[in-house]
Amino acid sequence: MAIAPSKLGGFVLRYQHSDQTLLLRLREVGLVRPDAADADVKATFQAAREEHAAGGYSPDNSPHERVRVFLEPYLSDKGRKWAEPLESLELPDE
Question: What's the predicted TM-score (pTM) here?
Answer without folding.
Answer: 0.86
